[in-house]
Amino acid sequence: MFSLSALWLTRYNAVALLLYDTILTFDREVSLIWARGRAHMTMLFLVIRDVEIASLVLYIAVINFGPTSAQVSLHANDCRNPEVALVVPYFGWAVFLGWRAYALSSRNIFVGLFGFLCSVTFAAPTLVTLFGSSAVYSAHPPSCTFSYNYPEPFISAIQISRPMALVADLTVLVLTCIKTRKEWPSLNKGGPRTSLASTLFVNGVLFVSAVTVLHVVALITSLDDSLNDRTFGQITLIRDVVITIVLSRYILDLATVAAGTVEDRQADPQAILTTQWTHYDSDVTSLYSLDEEYNGRGFDKSFNDSFSEA
Fold first, then answer.
1. How far apart, in Å, do the first and last CA atoms of the chain sit?
2. Omega into 163 within 30° of 0, i.e. cis?
3. What is the C-alpha separation between 101 and 90, in angstroms, rounded?
4. Fewest C-beta atoms under 10 Å: which of 85, 184, 277, 299?
């Protein structure tokens, strides 16, 4: 009973935290994403954060206000649908990490695909497992009095796929550190004025590191047989919510940096994620003038020349 109550408390807290973060960033979301008509960015943002919120709310609604008759099998299917929706943001993670790997590797398509495939390998088996599982019912309906029986091959696929999420995170983290290594000395100087590359380095390293640590914790707990399903469910739910907030904040930060681009209206919507920017006026100030820092070339050149793809 305690585990069940703790799991439900975690779900309610997760919804509250996501809604609170949405309120805090709503003005930036509207001005930087919705109002600018960036289809790719809007879809990615929807999948990563809004689908996560909707699925949690739907899950709670189904459990609390779902059918109370003896048709437990129908109720089991109702509960499965929100669980499937909870997995959809994983594919948003994969797209974002693949995009960042692509940008940080000087637009190397193979590195981008590697990051995407490693991350999507983590998401796909989880989704397939939910569809391939069968419900095992208890003798006392209603309220979803059942559990899912997962086929052994699917369980093995999930266990193999979990380390792949770490590979994707570490790929982006290492690329971020390598591409911004020249900015490390300036980070120690402090002060309110920092360069664009420094700003992206700090955000990138902190955000991706947080995602990596959460995946490590989830991986370790998945190997602990002493944990029951509800306890592991709490850990994975906390991981999913924090990663959702971290990635959505990072996307907004990247959009903020790109918001003042002169060619913004004609720019490729994907350019935010690949950081292909020219000079602009924004609240992200620079230690140097445009000519001093980028030799007049702007953000559209290689990172080695202009620190543009941070």
1. 48
2. no
3. 16
4. 184
Q: Is 225 helix (H, G, I), strand (E, B) or coil?
A: coil
Largest CA distance in the chain: 74
- CA 9 – CA 32 distance, rounded (Å): 33
- Spatial distance between the Cα atoms of 184 and 289, rounded to a whole number of angstroms: 19
Write the CATH number for 36: 1.20.1070
Tens digits of residue pLDDT in 185-209: 555 555 444 444 555 556 667 777 8
For residue 232, the enclosing domain spans 2-306
pLDDT digit string, tens, across residues 255-294:
776 665 434 444 444 444 444 333 333 333 333 333 333 3
306-309 own/partner pairs: CB under 8 Å, 24+ apart: 307/180, 307/182, 307/183, 307/195, 307/196, 307/197, 308/197, 308/275, 308/276, 308/277, 309/103, 309/104, 309/106, 309/179, 309/274, 309/275, 309/276
Q: Is 149 helix (H, G, I), strand (E, B) or coil?
A: strand
